[in-house]
Write a structure and sequence with these properties.
Blueprint (H helix, E strand, L loop, with lengths): L3 H9 L13 H18 L10 H16 L7 E5 L7 H7 L4 E6 L2 H13 L5 E5 L2 H4 L9 E7 L4 H8 L3 E11 L9 H6 E9 L6 E9 L2
């Protein structure tokens, strides 16, 4: 991963992404490079990601999440459902150190990896918990606590909304990171209940479509 920063910055300067003005400091790039290195090392032992080539890891994990986070405005607390290898939660924390973040996953091995990365990167006010989403709904420590809930390709949109909603404060937002079929998941029922906005971008090397869907409950 010697060329991590070069590939990262080249990707963010690509057509369609340059105007988003996503700024990554030297320190932030170094933290992400450390995360990527650990991802590749641990992935040889446990299944963190099906993506194994360094260029694809930079693009499909780090650039994807960096671009997505540019559309997430002003939450002070956020929960990442099905965080896996730390995407997008770890990236959110690196870019915005003031955020309170909870990473959630049902795989103990993935949570062990996330806790290792949190310690290695010396990240503060971030926690990784091993649990099923449904088991956390009635926990007072998490119910109606967060400004935002996010996931990346976690489950079908309507199901994700149902799972995410109990964690939200009254004016909170739900963010779903999706691929090319994203708009097909926006149902009439969702449109009736939520204000929905959709941001589109294209990954710089693979040129595949990505979307961030934001849902906020109507008054």
């Amino acid at each position: 991963m010697i060329e991590f920063k070069t590939i990262l910055l080249k990707g963010l300067q690509a057509k369609g992404l340059k105007d988003l003005n996503i700024n990554v400091s030297e320190h932030q790039a170094q933290l992400m490079a450390m995360h990527a290195k650990e991802l590749m090392v641990w992935n040889k032992k446990i299944n963190l990601t099906a993506i194994k080539q360094p260029l694809q890891i930079v693009e499909k994990h780090f650039i994807d999440c960096l671009v997505a986070t540019s559309f997430i405005k002003d939450p002070k607390s956020i929960i990442d459902m099905g965080s896996g290898g730390g995407f997008p939660g770890i990236i959110l924390k690196i870019i915005n150190p003031e955020l309170e973040i909870v990473l959630m996953d049902s795989s103990r091995k993935k949570i062990n990896f996330l806790k290792h990365v949190i310690r290695l990167l010396d990240l503060k006010n971030i926690n990784a918990i091993h649990t099923r989403v449904e088991d956390l709904h009635e926990n007072r420590l998490y119910k109606n606590r967060f400004d935002a809930v996010i996931s990346r390709a976690f489950t079908e949109l309507s199901n994700f909304v149902d799972l995410a909603f109990p964690f939200l404060k009254g004016e909170g937002a739900i963010y779903a990171m999706k691929g090319k079929q994203a708009k097909k998941e926006i149902s009439v029922k969702l449109l009736e209940k939520f204000k929905i906005t959709t941001d589109h971008y294209v990954l710089p090397f693979e040129r595949s479509d990505r979307y961030v869907i934001k849902l906020v409950m109507k008054n």
